[in-house]
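Title: [Solved] DUF3108 domain-containing protein 3D structure

Original question kept below for reference.
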Amino acid sequence: MKMISMVAMLAAVSASAYSAPQPGNKALAAGLSKYLAQQGDVCVGKFDWPIDVAPGDAEAGSRDAVQLPVLAQLGLAEAVGGMVVRRNAEGVEQEVPVQRYSLTEAGKKFYLKRDTSTVAPTGEKIARTGDFCVGKLSVAKVVAWDAATGTASYTYKFAAAPWMHEPAAQQVFPMIAYIMKGEGKMQMKQRLRLENGRWVGVRD
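Solution (posted by the thread starter after getting help):
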């Protein structure tokens, strides 16, 4: 299954930018609701645990170095010290100290088993079997339908994980905070097709 990606979140726009609803919204909403029930998990790309964080990772732009200490603070992860072999800037392998983060029992509740895939910088497709997820989307209201592209625009509800209401979590997951603030106001888009008399979501 393919989960809602962070790229899709960036496509959310103001509801006022679209035209008024057209006939058939009830059927479209039913199709969207079924699709999001299966595919509406919002996850943050932390596929494989444990995750190692080394000194200097934050300066290098590592999200893990910023986010994982907060997850630990919230009781969702825990860290132990260790050593791993990494290549330095000159390409030489050396041992470096790391904090190795694992999910706690509380954190494991938010790790969902899902078959999906990502693309490596080399273009290689990587199969994934799960991800750390922070909430789930559902339909609030269908507000527009583009027949030419088979795309529905809709406002959404977002059932965020309880800990995502903590200021520290919203600070390190700003895109999720943005989604939370846009609940019922901003729009997302989803392609659908008519199949056996019912509208079904199309996985891109």
